[in-house]
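Box 3.1 A note on notation
Throughout this textbook, protein chains are presented in two layers. The first layer is the amino acid sequence; the second is a token string describing backbone geometry. Keep the layers aligned when reading.
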Amino acid sequence: MNSDERIASVGHNIQEKASVIWNIANTLFGAYKPHEYGLVILPMTVIKRFHDCLLPTHDAVLAAYAKAKEQKLQVYEDFLTDASGYQFYNVSPFTFKTLLADPNSIEDNFRAYINGFSDNVLDILARMNFDDQIKRMVEAGALYQVITDLNDKKADMSPDKISSVDMGYIFENLVQRFSESYNEEAGAHFTSRDIIYLMCDLLVAGDTSAFVDGNINKTVYDMTMGTSQMLACMEERLKQLDADADVTSFGQEINPFTFGIAKADTLIRGGDPDNMQFGDTLSDDKFDGYKFDYCISNPPFGIDWKKEADKVTKEHKKGTAGRFAPGLPAKSDGQMLFMLNGIAKLKDTGRMAIIQNGSSLFTGDAGSGPSEIRRYLIENDWLDAIVQLPNDSFYNTGIATYVWLITKNKPVERAGKVQLIDASQCYVSRRKSIGNKRVDITRACRDLVDLAYSEYLDKTYTDTAEDSKEIICKSKILDSITLGYNKITVESPLLDEDGKVIKKKGKPVPDSDQRDTENVPLDEDIDTYFDREVKPYKQNAWIDKTKTKVGYEIPFTRMFYVYQPLESAEAIAQRIEEHEHILIDKLHTLFGKVGN
């Protein structure tokens, strides 16, 4: 299956399967409010996925367990994982099918089945607080019916029917439904496969050290991993390049449900579950001291970091020994803190692709936290490129979004420069939207963006997408210094009643009411600018150089603005007159002509 077919499957097969599973929640009506359905559906889906993975080796595991007991072995986990073929197992004699044989004992038997899982699975269910949900389902008389519904062929989640990556997207679809029922913020959205593929392509395309001795050996980190689909897609992409690629994934997640799903997915894929950590990345970093080859992430934006403020501020005060040395953004939006965390986690050859909304480009005056973070990135020459995505690319928000590409070792030809890529018109419209997601970034679109990134030119690229629509991608290469400015403070003298300059210790006293500021491009001499732009209009003015601050902003929209000439007055008048004639004719037709 090619990448576009995979993307299409997200919109059809995956949503269809998720709908089948979510509809099982009808059994819960009354005992649960609609916004609580996920408390049951998510862990039950995890359990059913584990069950269907283990079903082919169920008898072999029971035989290995019996033999271990017969031999009175104290440590037998390795025998059971060998028998199951996974890093987890279940030693209960029950299956979902045999549980249905005794409706009257469904609670005891189901609990016995759950307790048969290995500790790593029990930890996932404990994070989801699933024991409480078993009690609620039993009290509501719903447990037996839920298990019955999950035995339906349409709810088959065996790995030969659903791949690991696709199962991850089914989980994300379920989490999305659960989140929407809570009416969560627009920033708490999910990242569709087409966007992740683009991010993966860009990460690999610019990696001069992707292959070492002909092989790929990489570590990948996602600081806000959700259900871990970015990590799964990155591994998938690297293994397309090298079937024997050695890819080790690491991730941290704060939501117990999505964390549980991510850890479950890791177990099923054969990864190390210890690499999946639970906790708040900003205030409880589980990967302190780690360095990774790649960071790929879509942190929440528009979400405040007030509850993490004490620990974040303490770390900021550590200076370069902490993750947040350059500056702190406004407490109303913590997305740039995640950017700093990612930078701190990169190897000296590392690369990061991280999604941000438009505020990271320009919010904050010179000297503010956001400006200082941009300054930190640009003056260290780590900001490689920024790609604007099409609007309506995400399930839960239609706002403008951007992929920032950060690299710790720019190639010589990119040194001292930043590439801006406008891919807002590089998409294919979906036949049917999924929430706010109305467009896809298909293979043709990604190829065009990749071409613009790799050619590294000031150029407009066009092509024809799969739906025969023209797609457009624009590239601009800027000198990094042009993104910075000196904010100077211009003072004017305080005058007395006679219009004479008031002085103190021989120096003019500044008039605070006349104080002004000017932003002077970094690549221009301050005094030259002042003499040209200010002095002719304020003869007695001067610069208070003790107040000069350096600022950085990225005027993305302005870089791609194309002036559209205004319509002439004559053309406007003619158009109005034509509309008047049409309106009069319609009135005559409606009422009959009675004079002019």
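The domain at 3-179 is CATH 1.20.1260 (Ferritin). The first strand starts at residue 217 and ends at 222.
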